[in-house]
Amino acid sequence: MGQFSQAMTEVEENLAKLLEEIGRLRHYIVSLEDENTRLKRQLCAMSDAETTRVQNNTNLIREQARENLDKLYLEGFHVCHIYFGEPLEGVCLFCNAFLQHERD
Q1: Dist. CA 15–CA 21, nearest whole Å
Q2: CB 77 within 8 A of CB 71
Q3: Whole-angstrom Cα distance, residue 75 to residue 81?
Q4: Residue 104 pLDDT
Q5: What's residue 32's pLDDT?
Q6: Can you give the pLDDT at residue 63?
Q7: Neighbours of 59 (CB within 10 A)
Q8: How high is the mean pLDDT of the chain?
Q9: What is the DSSP code string of the chain?
C-alpha cells in the first residue's frame, strides 16, 4: 500500500473515532439536559416556606464562614487566595481586601 493510501486509512480511522466520540457526547448532553429540566421542575415545585428556609440556611452558612475567616486572620493566618493558610507577617492587603469585600 502506498504512503498516500496509508495516510488516508489513518485519517478514516481517526474520523471514525471522532464520530464515535461525538455520538457519546451527544448522548451525554441529552442526559444533562434531561437532568437540568428535572431539577428546574423540582425547584419550581418548592414552596415559599422551603425557599425561605434554604435562603436562611445559606445566609447562616455564609455568616459562619465569614466569622471563621475573620478568626483565622486574627489568629495570624492568611485568608487570601494567594497565601491561604500560611502564617501572616504584618498586614496583607489581599486579605484585608478580601475580608472587606466579604463584609460588603
Answers
A1: 10
A2: no
A3: 17
A4: 66
A5: 97
A6: 92
A7: 10
A8: 91
A9: --HHHHHHHHHHHHHHHHHHHHHHHHHHHHHHHHHHHHHHHHHHT--HHHHHHHHHHHHHHHHHHHHHHHHHHHTTB--STTTTTSBP-S--HHHHHHHHHHH-
User: d(Cα 52, Cα 64) in Å, to the nearest integer?
Assistant: 18
Q: Rounded to whole angstroms, how far apart are CA atoms 49 and 56? A: 10
Q: Report the C-alpha gap between 44 and 88 in whole angstroms.
A: 46
Over residues 90-104, the pLDDT tens digits come to 899 999 998 988 676
Cell numbers for 82:
494567594
Phi then psi for residue 79, to 5 deg, are -120, 0
The CA distance from 69 to 13, in Å, is 55
